[in-house]
């Protein structure tokens, strides 16, 4: 039970500081301004849950492929590496307007134009969304909006710092606790992004988030380094 709790706590803290101000966080906030929040939240959370489970599964399987001692050492190096990376990003940042927020917004705008949606009348868009909301729940669940939110967040997490850290954490901690902690953190962050929208996203200091996350990774690295593995 203690191992599950430890994995849950570490995963919750690590995922939370990694996802706040992350690319997928900003994407969820911007999408929620343009489409029904319920569909955006369902798509984003579903993608992040699937990615968390997949990452934890890879981490859980790693000790079966190579020795647990080596996976422990690799995880320790990952924590220190991500910690130094985050601290570097935090110190070099100017604390001004989020560049990542502007980048995500520009990408979504270009995507809308490429699909011919940028020129549509806003009133017709609202009418279409209202019609979709009147459909049965299962039909809504597989709407284009849900799939768009799912794909943006799912592929946005591939190779991301939080994904690699989840793999490393699941290799060193109880994978069930890691999955639970990751899902709770993803749900909290994504819900805040969807409800708060761009106004909340633009107020987040990426510098503070990066420095906080870097310190947390360093702490996890030190703890992992001091933990002996047979």
TrEMBL record:
It is found in: Membrane. GO terms for molecular function: calcium ion transmembrane transporter activity; manganese ion transmembrane transporter activity. Keywords: Membrane, Transmembrane, Transmembrane helix. InterPro entries: GDT1-like (IPR001727). Pfam families: GDT1. GO terms for biological process: Golgi calcium ion homeostasis; Golgi calcium ion transport. It comes from the Eukaryota. Its main location: membrane. It is a multi-pass membrane protein. One of its GO terms (cellular component) is membrane. The chain crosses the membrane at residues 39-58, 70-88, 137-156, 176-196, 208-226. Belongs to the GDT1 family. This is GDT1 family protein. It comes from Raphanus sativus. The gene is LOC108850179.
